[in-house]
Design goal:
By secondary structure, the chain is α+β, with helices and mostly antiparallel strands. It contains two helices and four strands. The chain has a four-stranded mixed β-sheet, covered by helices on one side. The relative contact order is 0.28.
Length: 67
């Protein structure tokens, strides 16, 4: 089953939501804005996860870390 993750990036924290292809919420969390906390949050879903996040001037670290 496909899973989708949305990340709202902030200076201090990131809001993360993971849903399945039926739109059912599987996880919702607020973590510190650093790649290790984000990766730890989404780790259980990584095999089937599609990730989207807002595009702003501070997204480079997240893009690089997720790649």
């Amino acid at each position: 089953m496909a899973l989708y993750c949305g990340i709202d990036i902030g200076k201090q924290s990131c809001d993360i939501a993971v849903i399945n292809n039926k739109g059912e919420l599987k996880k919702q969390a607020r973590v510190k804005s650093n790649i290790l906390d984000i990766l730890d949050c989404i780790k259980p879903y990584k095999k089937t996860l599609r990730i989207v996040f807002e595009s702003c001037s501070t997204y480079y670290w997240l893009s690089d870390g997720l790649t």
